[in-house]
Design a protein that fits this description.
By secondary structure, the protein is an alpha/beta fold. Helix content is 55%, strand content 18%. Strands 1, 2, 3, 4, 5, 6, 7, 8 and 9 form a nine-stranded mixed β-sheet that branches. Helix 1 (2-36) packs across helix 2 and helix 3 packs parallel to helix 5. The termini are far apart. Bound molecules: ligand C2E and magnesium ion (3 copies). One magnesium ion binds next to strand 6. Ligand C2E binds at residues 45, 61-62, 73-75, 78, 91, 94, 117-119, 149, 179-180, 203, 236-239, 256-258, 263.
């Protein structure tokens, strides 16, 4: 009996593995095809002042549609893009699209900075700074309209290289956020050396802050860290009004989340802009 179970288990796992490989391969083809045809979409999530509701920016989030017309989660395709090297092209397409969109908001009369996620392999690319600066020049978009979001692990990959890149971006006037702060392993001594502007409190802590004492303590610690180091704060993943109240009470004044708005298509974000200022 044990023997046949063992055999079944082996075939079960290899079948599962095979399915996984096929799925992965199909996803890679879809991503390649989408990038080749410039069909990757970008959605925009509003970032607001929690006290006044004023719109302070928008985060650009990549969106991939499969042949059936369903969205594939970035949690699935971003790591794949990183592993296959497609992240370089993906990153450039998102940057370009987001900057162009920001330009179109300006042309409608709205000064809304756009925030773009930069993956670790992109951050390690020595061309990145020049590509970004060239893009801003080409589009005639002021550097103050672009913000970059980098994770702790990307920053910690090569610390001296990071310092160099950050100081170039800073000199150009581009604002840098550390994304998902608290989930990585950045050392506080480097945090002080890195020229970053913003800590984004990870949504996992915000989600549980009212129900889990530990998460509340982490939120408090991140807020006091930012205050003592003169960094701005953004809370991500706000889903409840009660979370907004607590964050304000603790000293975090900026946030984003489904409570305010889901990420919106470029078209819907424009409508949101118009309605927000006339309402
Ligand atoms: P992130 O940069 O931390 O982005 C925030 C994620 O939280 C987004 O997920 C957003 O849709 C989601 N979110 C926002 N508000 C709420 C909320 O109230 N509740 C919940 N449950 N979720 C909320 P999304 O769009 O699925 O993206 C996931 C991650 O994929 C991003 O996390 C980012 O790390 C990565 N990503 C997305 N687009 C890009 C991109 O263009 N380049 C790179 N390098 N990474 C990207
Ligand atoms: Mg982000
Ligand atoms: Mg985040
Ligand atoms: Mg995240």
């Amino acid at each position: 009996k044990a023997k046949s179970e063992g055999r079944n288990r082996t075939s079960f796992f290899s079948e599962e593995l095979e399915q996984h490989m096929i799925h992965r391969h199909q996803l890679e083809l879809l991503l390649r095809d989408t990038l080749a045809n410039q069909q990757l979409q970008v959605h925009y999530q509003p970032k607001l002042c929690l006290k006044t509701g004023k719109l302070l920016g928008a985060e650009a989030l990549a969106r991939l549609k499969n042949q059936q017309g369903h969205w594939v989660s970035p949690v699935e395709f971003i790591p794949l893009a990183e592993e296959t090297g497609l992240i370089t092209e993906l990153g450039l397409q998102v940057l370009r699209r987001a900057c162009k969109e920001c330009l179109s908001w300006r042309q409608l009369g709205f000064q809304v900075p756009v925030s773009v996620n930069i993956a670790a392999p992109q951050f390690a690319n020595p061309q990145l700074v020049r590509q970004i600066l060239n893009l801003l020049t080409e589009l005639q978009l002021p550097a103050s309209m672009l913000e970059l979001e980098v994770t702790e692990s990307a920053l910690m990959l090569d610390v001296s290289k990071t310092q160099n890149i950050l100081s170039q971006l800073k000199a150009a006037g581009i604002c840098i956020s550390i994304d998902d702060f608290g989930t990585g392993y950045s050392s506080l001594s480097y945090l002080k050396k890195f020229q970053v502007d913003v800590l984004k409190i990870d949504k996992s802590f915000v989600h549980e802050m009212l129900t889990d004492k530990g998460d509340m303590e982490i939120v408090k610690a991140v807020i006091s860290l930012a205050q003592s180091m003169n960094l701005q704060l953004v809370a991500e993943g706000i889903e409840l009004e009660a979370q907004t109240h607590k964050l304000l009470e603790l000293g975090c004044q900026v946030g984003q989340g489904f409570f305010y708005s889901k990420p919106l298509s470029a078209k819907d974000f424009k409508a949101y802009l118009q309605q927000k200022t006339t309402a």
